[in-house]
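Quick entry between incubations.
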Amino acid sequence: MELTFITILDYLGTFAFAISGIRSAASKKFDWFGAYFIGLVTAIGGGTTRDVFLGVTPFWMIQPSYLVVTGIALLFVIGFGKWVVKLNYTFFIFDAIGLGLFTVVGIDKTLTLGFPMWVAIIMGMITGTVGGVLRDVLVNQVPLILRKDIYAMAAILGGIVYYFSMKIGVNSITTQIASVISVILIRVIAVQFHIGLPLMRDIPPNSKKKT
Amino acid sequence: MELTFITILDYLGTFAFAISGIRSAASKKFDWFGAYFIGLVTAIGGGTTRDVFLGVTPFWMIQPSYLVVTGIALLFVIGFGKWVVKLNYTFFIFDAIGLGLFTVVGIDKTLTLGFPMWVAIIMGMITGTVGGVLRDVLVNQVPLILRKDIYAMAAILGGIVYYFSMKIGVNSITTQIASVISVILIRVIAVQFHIGLPLMRDIPPNSKKKT
Amino acid sequence: MELTFITILDYLGTFAFAISGIRSAASKKFDWFGAYFIGLVTAIGGGTTRDVFLGVTPFWMIQPSYLVVTGIALLFVIGFGKWVVKLNYTFFIFDAIGLGLFTVVGIDKTLTLGFPMWVAIIMGMITGTVGGVLRDVLVNQVPLILRKDIYAMAAILGGIVYYFSMKIGVNSITTQIASVISVILIRVIAVQFHIGLPLMRDIPPNSKKKT
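Done. Structure below.
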């Protein structure tokens, strides 16, 4: 039952990530296959990068449901494009759920393989954010999540919640739920109140020449 | 003898892929080394990605012939730039041969390592197409093969031919040849008759803001 | 003592690479986290790619000092932006030291794992240059080091110095020092005297169409 609930959340998150990739592809007039490809990279790119770094077989090569969920997302955008726009806020919530869940899945998997907590927190962040970075690189845009909003930072803060929750002896399931909810809340609050990190000031770009 | 023939096709495909990368680099005025680098990534990027996902040592680290073929491709473009343009159709055919062969090599290697058929078909597609995607990302363009023409789709259809051919009991060599030829024919027919997948309609790009 | 000296050089190189990434991010108005992310990818991207190809755990997952050095680089750019510009030549020297050191670290690690010399030379080049390529891709620019200056070529020439030094029986430490110094000198001389490889002539970009 618990597993089923997490699986549903996992698919919701995958669906939301795939939708965001497919929408980016649509904005550049990709064909259907290209849109599917970008959607898939957005949905599984983070977890794949994590698994390559951890030295294990990428998760989506073990069971095909992520490919299927991405396919449904493609059909949804093709068939109900207008709805997608109207459901903007719903997808934002799904995306936040996905970020939270992917983060915790990444942390758990890394700890299970015997790495220390600081590696796990980074892997959680990678799981949640690298897909979005790859999406933006593939449609030839500067990665959005590196320029504004609390996004990767929400994943890292969720990882710190995970750490302290474990540290004070909270059991595993509660720790995971607390961490997921933290990420979602931080995302929602940051967007609601336009909270972001300071931007870098523009200094002349790096030059290899001597002055 | 059979092996020799396949090796020649493999080098032809590598040569064609490298040429397409070097030409992209030339259009952006890269220096000779940069052009070699882009040519190499185009030629070996797909197989390298496949091998990283499969957890084996990238194929070009085991024998250096792919580096040599790419070097010859560079000299060819530098020395015979005009010919390359005149030989456009020849290179298109080499590229189609490369796509077909790389696809089947990817499928075979994946099956040999014990993965199921659906993973093998995806790995065949990755072997044939990721090099071209990396090429376009490195020269700062939206990946061409994700926007138009049947390209990745040809690799997937070739994988499905492979599957059904094996399913009905055709022997291994014939299955491989049938699959390679399918990919080449699909590519040639698609380009000849301007057959492509439908394009996505432009809906407003994804926004993380609530409406 | 020797180890300490090399460690200091390693951190100087990491610092210089991180600074160059953070400056690129600043020029695109990334937020602080985005700048840290780009700085980190620039500093560790090459070694990470090498380790993934070699099939070992990425080096920065084993000890966190590279994350700390990148953090210091971020604080430095935020706090002393003007100094960074004034110190342009100093950072160019640090960057050259980093390139030399990363190259030799890459070569050593590859040989230790039992690969042949030609693979080691390529891995040295990858260690020294892929971080800069990823930096440019992430800020949506055509990779600088593929277009001008002797950069990747300096890493390869350093690898060739390594090879011949070993070949004529020079001991391991001297070989490594000779190789690092070669890379640094080649970089400095190439930039000082504006020495570069020839550029590719522009021929029409690759077309998948027949003529």
